């Protein structure tokens, strides 16, 4: 619902686009060695926190974030994937949410991890509203010193060289939640995100087959790379990914012979942000009037609170959990609309300078660049 694919491309164009999108992933995705390091770290965290022989400090510890989005290669696709099967890049960290044991304090989790290697605490944030405390650690586990070298490299075979090889440090974010209710809600929201992510990828794969899956993965890397270049905390990688998924849901893109599929998606995202987060007085589809909801294939909702500059929700999950309006998680809580609009406009002028700058919302999606409002936006917003 709300998707518009536009005209299909010929085989030669698809092959060219496939190469271009493949190159995007090669440049932006983390090297395999970095990915392996993050996976090793992620494997050790629950082993340490849930060790029954050393007083279990947590009821459960679950991975989330980019590392948890590793592509499930077990699905029955009629083609073989030959590009990076993960979404982590050089800036990615390891994210865990921890359900605290009764009578244990979050500090016990941080202390346990700090003892297991040369870790140091670099950040701590407490959010009383959600009974959560987040610790940011930087370092590595002791055993990483033995595994850091590439198994096929001469350095790995040389014991002395292996000892001298200092493992690279990784960031580890641990969110400790002391309320079972809030822990369950956190998990449900993450599940809602992963479901939207998976469904959107499958939809794009349905449009273009293997090239579509490749384009989607390259698009996600472009979104994260763009967010990393936005100054301050104006746009996080998670926020950019959610907005990018919404742009696909409502069909806000146009395939162009000069662009790969991923770049067509990315231009659609940039133009969506420029229009939606711009300050247009007579523009109805604007962040001042509407909230984004990724539920139900992507839809508009009226603004719920004027205390936020903009709003983005997984509303179906919130309604399923029965959360009060003041307990809902607004994904866009820290997003700066003016900064996002400015950054997208500047990148459009630099990277897509030959294209028509005066875009109307809805002018991207659709065959031949139809000017009709996308299907998801056509109906008036309802509660």
What does this structure look like?
Helix content is 43%, strand content 13%. By secondary structure, the chain is an alpha/beta fold. A five-stranded mixed β-sheet has the order 1-2-5-4-3, sandwiched between helices. Strands 7-6-8 form a three-stranded mixed β-sheet, with helices on one face.
Brief digest:
The protein is α/β, with parallel strands linked by helices. The protein is built from 13 helices and 8 strands.
Total DSSP helices? 13
Trace the largest sheet across and list its strands.
Answer: 1-2-5-4-3
Largest sheet: 5 strands, mixed
Shape: globular
Oligomeric state, counting identical vs distinct chains: single chain
Radius of gyration, whole Å:
22 Å
Calculate the mean pLDDT score and round it: 83
Helix content: 40-55%
- Please provide the count of β strands: 8
Strand content: 5-15%
The secondary-structure element order is: HHEEHEEHHHEHHHHEEEHHH
Distance between the termini: 18 Å
Secondary-structure-derived class:
alpha/beta
Stretches where pLDDT is under 50 for at least 5 consecutive residues are: 1-8, 155-163, 356-383
């Amino acid at each position: 619902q709300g998707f518009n694919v536009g005209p299909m491309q010929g085989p030669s164009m698809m092959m060219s686009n496939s190469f271009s999108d493949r190159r995007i992933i090669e440049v932006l995705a983390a090297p395999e060695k970095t990915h392996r390091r993050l996976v090793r770290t992620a494997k050790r965290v629950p082993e340490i926190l849930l060790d029954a022989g050393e007083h279990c400090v947590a009821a459960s510890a679950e991975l989330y974030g980019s590392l948890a989005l590793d592509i499930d290669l077990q699905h029955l696709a009629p083609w073989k994937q030959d590009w990076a099967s993960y979404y982590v890049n050089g800036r990615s960290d390891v994210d865990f949410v921890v359900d605290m044991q009764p009578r244990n304090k979050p500090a016990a989790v941080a202390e346990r991890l700090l003892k297991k290697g040369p870790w140091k605490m670099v950040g701590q944030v407490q959010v009383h509203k959600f009974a959560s405390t987040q610790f940011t650690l930087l370092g590595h586990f002791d055993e990483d010193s033995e595994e850091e070298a590439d198994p096929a490299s001469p350095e790995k075979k040389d014991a002395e060289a292996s000892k001298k090889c200092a493992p690279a440090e990784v960031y580890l974010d641990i969110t400790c939640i002391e309320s079972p209710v809030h822990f369950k809600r956190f998990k449900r929201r993450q599940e809602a995100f992963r479901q939207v992510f998976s469904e959107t990828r499958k939809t794009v794969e349905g449009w273009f087959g293997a090239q579509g899956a490749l384009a989607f993965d390259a698009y996600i890397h472009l979104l994260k790379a763009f967010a990393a270049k936005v100054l301050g905390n104006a746009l996080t990688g998670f926020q950019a990914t959610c907005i990018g998924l919404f742009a696909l849901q409502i069909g806000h893109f146009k395939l162009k012979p000069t662009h790969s599929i991923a770049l067509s998606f990315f231009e659609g995202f940039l133009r969506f942000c420029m229009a939606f987060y711009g300050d247009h007085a007579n523009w109805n589809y604007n962040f001042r009037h509407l909230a984004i909801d990724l539920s139900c294939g992507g839809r508009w909702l009226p603004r719920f609170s004027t205390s936020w500059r903009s709003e983005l929700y997984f509303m179906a999950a919130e309604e399923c959990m029965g959360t009060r309006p003041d307990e809902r998680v607004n994904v866009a809580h820290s997003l700066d609309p003016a900064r996002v609009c400015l950054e997208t406009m500047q990148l459009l002028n630099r990277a897509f300078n030959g294209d028509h700058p005066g875009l109307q919302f809805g002018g991207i999606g659709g065959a031949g660049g139809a000017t009709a409002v996308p299907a998801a936006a056509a109906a008036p917003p309802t509660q």
